[in-house]
Amino acid sequence: MKLWDSFLEMLSDRNNLFDYRTYYSATVQWFKEHIYCFTPEIISINNLDFLLSLDIDGYITESPDIQLETEYERLKKLNPSSKHTVAMLIADILREMISIKSGTDCPVCGNEMIYAVDNRNFLSCDICGYCMAENT
C-alpha cells in the first residue's frame, strides 16, 4: 500500500474527522506510526518535529479553513508523488488547524498572514515566509 493511500484509509474512518482536535490527533498518530518512512531532514524542513509534539489544548483554532465534512473527498483527489510531498501535505493540514488568521495581507505576496503560534504580536506568511511585528 502506498503511503498516501494509508493516510486516506485512516481518514476513511469518519470518527477521525469528528472535530478538529480529533483530526489533529489522528493525523499525528498516523504520522508517528509511519515516521520510519521519512528522513529526519524531511521532518525538519516541514517543522513536523514541532507539530507532532505540540500540546494542542491551547492551539486548535475554532474555524480553520478545513471543512471536515469534505476533507476526505478533497484529499482523495490528491496524488502526492513523493514522501516529501506527503510530509508537506501533512504539515500543511496540521498547521492549518493551529493557525489563527490575522486579517492582514502580506506586503510581499498578498496572502493573508497568520499569527505565530506562541506570539500573537508576530505575523508570518505561510506562502512566502515574510515575517513582521503586528504593529508595523
What does this structure look like?
The protein has helices at residues 3-12, 20-33, 40-45, 48-53, 71-76, 83-98, and strands spanning 100-105, 112-116, 119-124, 131-133. The termini are far apart. With 136 residues, the chain is of the alpha+beta class. The model has no long low-confidence stretch (mean pLDDT 87). It folds into two domains: 3-98, no CATH class; 100-136, no CATH class. Helix 2 packs antiparallel against helix 6.
Order of helices and strands: HHHHHHEEEE
Q: Which descriptor suits the 3D outline?
A: globular
Number of strands: 4
User: In terms of per-residue confidence, which ranges show pLDDT below 50 for 5 or more consecutive residues?
Assistant: none
Q: How large is the radius of gyration? A: 15 Å
Strand-pairing-aware structural class: alpha+beta
In short:
The protein is of the alpha+beta class and 136 residues long. It has helices spanning 3-12, 20-33, 40-45, 48-53, 71-76, 83-98; strands at 100-105, 112-116, 119-124, 131-133.
Outline the fold blueprint.
Blueprint lengths: L2 H10 L7 H14 L6 H6 L2 H6 L17 H6 L6 H16 L1 E6 L6 E5 L2 E6 L6 E3 L3
Antiparallel strand pairs: 1-2, 2-3, 3-4
Helix pairs in contact: 2-6
Looking at this protein, list some descriptive labels.
single chain; 136 residues; alpha+beta; 6 helices; 15% strand; globular
